[in-house]
């Protein structure tokens, strides 16, 4: 793999998401040799993927080359590689571009979409965990509008203009809001031959409220904002199947749609090779102790979505979102340096900075400790926080500019079908 | 196709390139019903495609939704469609989304890459006439750098880092310059494990100078600028074959490369259905009279690259570039309106506004009538003209911002592999 030999202990990080980047940054120019492996050459700012899907932002606004990040340090190396297997006995990682030994291994492979075993959903739905998938979804949405324009058959046109989203977590809520905005502000401009009232956005959620992890107040606010935008919210509704363009549910409600977006759950994305007991089966995540060491190992760590750290406050582990990943990464970096100095590691504790979700172009809900608020000011906070966290100067400016423009013009940036999806049989595979 | 019936005569325009857009704009809100058909939903600013390939600009900076353009008029319709055939007898256009009758038909389908019958080149080379192709080329370049990083075999690494471009027209020259800039300013930052001296850019040209259509002075300047950037220019060199990563030429010189970019020629992209004599065989373009009427027809017109209008000044037709396309489009719009008013049409005459090409990040050559100059001022003019012509306010600003940023930082915007190319067997097909 052409990584130079070094006197320094080698730390391999698998995955350049929030967790991988945050541990890497804190190890820059410390007494370790860093190697980051990822199957993509860029970091994806996942919280804004829904903006790419709905033509609000271009990929380069929410993705950033991993090399550019790792370049800031002399002892850091990036390799575009897919990891096949870990051989913990030999302290080696086997990849499609060769095998590399490690002194410490950090697994930060994140999560993947969870279909809960429903094969029809996996085969027929679309979802959005990566930039190419988000571009696929964008193409599908635009191709549906194009096709609806020329479709006389009412049933068929309904199916093309029905957007059904399963799962009212932040992704589902934000996507529904953005689709409603597309309907309200863009369609009558771009697709004047469509009757925009025929466009329907349905959001399905198994629990009895949207944004289940947030406060009751924010859930209620979010639902009100969504309904204000015209989104049909169906709570206590479980999806049973999706085939022949029909979504069936436990309540008997059916939805006729060519665009069924699955955002109803994620599951860990572990790597082959560690002993079976390291993985908590149901969650598909590595069981780690308070130092993020994977059960049964002292030199193999897991951080972020893929790590399941159970304690009193979080009996089911931390939420699979950016904040725990970032904090675990930073904490692990410090612990590694302590290890190298023969000091004792300190246990991780999660500081909940709050959660938020945006609904449409000027509303959001925010839970900040005991403070729970929603509306325009919340949206302003949401925008500020997201801009702030976007990696890299340029992205921040371009994104900001796009948002301001989009806000002033009620218009969305680019509605280009660059990855024709529908008639090309593009696979939704995660590596695409 | 769901185009409403209208009292007004229907004008169908096939193709939303420079020619198609310019004729459409001049017919907005006149007494015609306009229908534009294109297989993509966006206009591509082709002169800047090379910037997408070399990670300088994102697609949305150089592409613009056709619907957004046509929306400016009430009597205009866009349909995403591939034209299968013209039935001139029935005055109908047959497409993949149905058949539509016309009163006047304007063919503005442009050109496609010309391989001059060399099947190996067509099979093994890459080229760049569309946004997806430009993104493929970008991915290929970046994937080659990644692969070179991990390749010990010197010969193999050479092939990965040799970039060979056939054809020193504006595209070949601009692409070579941009690749040389990538080498000089980016590689040592992003790929510090690569020895940048191993990267070689070779530009091959059959004629004895680069930019053959320009003045001798500009050709000489361009060659000097290219060589100043480290590009190896091989004039009087014809490509004979490309297989097993080897480019062979008439001079005996061989090039070992995994990236052979073909920009050595274009040929018309006519539509099926018109009588054979309408097409000039060698050029693959429609023979048109001074009113852009296709030979043998009075109600079927061709404009832009696909039109071959021969006269004393241009015995082989106009150059296949943006200016004649734009001017013919505008002129035809006026002629159509004259026709509808029972006035006589006026013959087209081309006003040569000059030609220019840019080399790298701060040099260009410009032929402006008798004025021929090159260097930084020429680059400034080049940038100004290109920004000016970019369709749409937003694109102009974003592009300008990217250029300024790129200029100040010696850095390029986004080096994302969003369309993994090499190991995915993506076809270079034009419809991709």
Write the layout of secondary structure elements.
The structure is a homodimer of 432-residue chains.
Chain A: E1 10-14, H1 18-27, E2 33-38, E3 42-44, H2 49-53, H3 59-62, E4 63-65, H4 66-70, E5 76-80, E6 83-87, E7 92-95, E8 98-101, E9 104-107, E10 111-113, H5 119-124, H6 131-149, H7 154-161, E11 162-166, H8 170-190, E12 200-204, H9 216-228, E13 232-234, E14 239-243, E15 246-249, E16 254-256, E17 259-262, E18 266-268, E19 279-280, E20 285-287, E21 300-302, E22 307-308, H10 322-340, E23 355-359, E24 363-368, E25 371-375, H11 376-389, H12 393-409
Parallel strand pairs in A: 1-2, 1-9, 2-5, 9-21, 11-12, 11-17, 12-13, 20-22
Antiparallel strand pairs in A: 3-4, 6-7, 7-8, 10-18, 14-15, 15-16, 19-20, 23-24, 24-25
Helix pairs in contact in A: 1-10, 6-7
Q: Could you describe the 3D structure shown?
A:
- 2 copies of one chain form a homodimer.
- Chain A folds into 2 domains: 10-39 and 81-113 and 267-340, FAD/NAD(P)-binding domain (3-Layer(bba) Sandwich); 122-264 and 356-409, FAD/NAD(P)-binding domain, CATH 3.50.50.
- Chain A has a 5-stranded parallel sheet. Chain A has a 4-stranded parallel sheet with strand order 13-12-11-17. In chain A, strands 6-7-8 form a 3-stranded antiparallel sheet, with no helix packed on it.
- The first copy, chain A, has helices at residues 18-27, 49-53, 59-62, 66-70, 119-124, 131-149, 154-161, 170-190, 216-228, 322-340, 376-389, 393-409; strands spanning 10-14, 33-38, 42-44, 63-65, 76-80, 83-87, 92-95, 98-101, 104-107, 111-113, 162-166, 200-204, 232-234, 239-243, 246-249, 254-256, 259-262, 266-268, 279-280, 285-287, 300-302, 307-308, 355-359, 363-368, 371-375.
- Chain A contains 12 helices and 25 strands.
- In chain A, helix 1 runs parallel beside helix 10 (322-340) and helix 6 (131-149) packs antiparallel against helix 7 (154-161).
- Chain A is α/β, with parallel strands linked by helices and 432 residues long.
- At the A-B interface, strand 5, helix 6 and helix 12 of A face strand 5, helix 6 and helix 12 of B.
């Amino acid at each position: 793999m052409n990584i130079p030999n070094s006197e320094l202990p080698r730390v391999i990080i698998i995955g350049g998401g929030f967790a991988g980047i945050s541990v890497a940054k804190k190890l820059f120019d410390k007494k370790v040799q860093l190697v980051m492996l990822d199957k993509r050459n860029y970091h994806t700012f996942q919280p804004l993927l829904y903006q790419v899907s709905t033509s609000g932002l271009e990929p380069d606004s929410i993705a950033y080359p991993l090399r550019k990040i790792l370049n800031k340090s002399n002892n850091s190396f990036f390799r575009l590689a897919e990891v096949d297997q870990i051989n913990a006995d030999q302290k080696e990682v086997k990849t499609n571009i060769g095998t590399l030994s490690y002194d410490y291994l950090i697994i930060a492979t994140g999560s993947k979409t969870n279909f809960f075993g429903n094969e029809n959903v996996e085969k027929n739905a679309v979802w959005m965990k990566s930039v190419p998938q988000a571009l696929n979804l964008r193409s599908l949405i635009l191709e549906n509008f194009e096709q609806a324009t020329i479709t006389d058959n009412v049933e068929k046109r309904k199916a093309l203009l029905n957007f059904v989203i399963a799962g009212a977590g932040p992704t589902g809520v934000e996507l529904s809001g953005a689709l409603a905005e597309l309907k309200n502000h863009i369609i009558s401009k771009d697709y004047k031959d469509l009757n925009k009232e025929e466009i329907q956005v349905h959001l399905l959620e198994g629990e009895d409220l949207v944004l289940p992890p947030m406060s009751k107040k924010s859930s209620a606010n979010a639902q009100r904002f969504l309904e204000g935008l015209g989104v049909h919210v169906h709570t206590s509704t479980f999806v049973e199947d999706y085939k022949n363009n029909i979504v069936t549910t436990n309540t008997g409600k059916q939805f006729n749609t060519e665009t069924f977006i699955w955002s109803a759950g994620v599951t860990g994305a572990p790597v082959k090779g560690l002993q079976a007991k390291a993985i908590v089966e149901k969650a598909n995540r590595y069981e780690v102790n308070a130092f993020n060491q994977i059960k049964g190992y002292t030199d193999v760590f897991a951080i972020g979505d893929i790590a399941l750290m159970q304690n009193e406050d979080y009996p089911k582990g931390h939420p699979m979102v950016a904040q725990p990943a970032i904090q675990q990464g930073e904490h692990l970096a410090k612990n590694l340096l302590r290890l190298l100095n023969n000091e004792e590691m300190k246990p991780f504790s999660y500081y909940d900075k709050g959660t938020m979700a945006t609904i449409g172009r000027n509303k959001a809900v925010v839970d900040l400790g005991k403070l729970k608020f929603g509306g325009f000011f919340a949206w302003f906070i949401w925008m500020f926080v997201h801009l702030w966290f976007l990696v890299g100067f340029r992205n921040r400016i371009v994104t900001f500019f796009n948002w301001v423009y989009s806000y002033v013009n009620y218009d969305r940036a680019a509605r280009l079908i660059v990855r024709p999806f529908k008639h090309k049989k593009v696979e939704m595979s995660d590596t695409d």
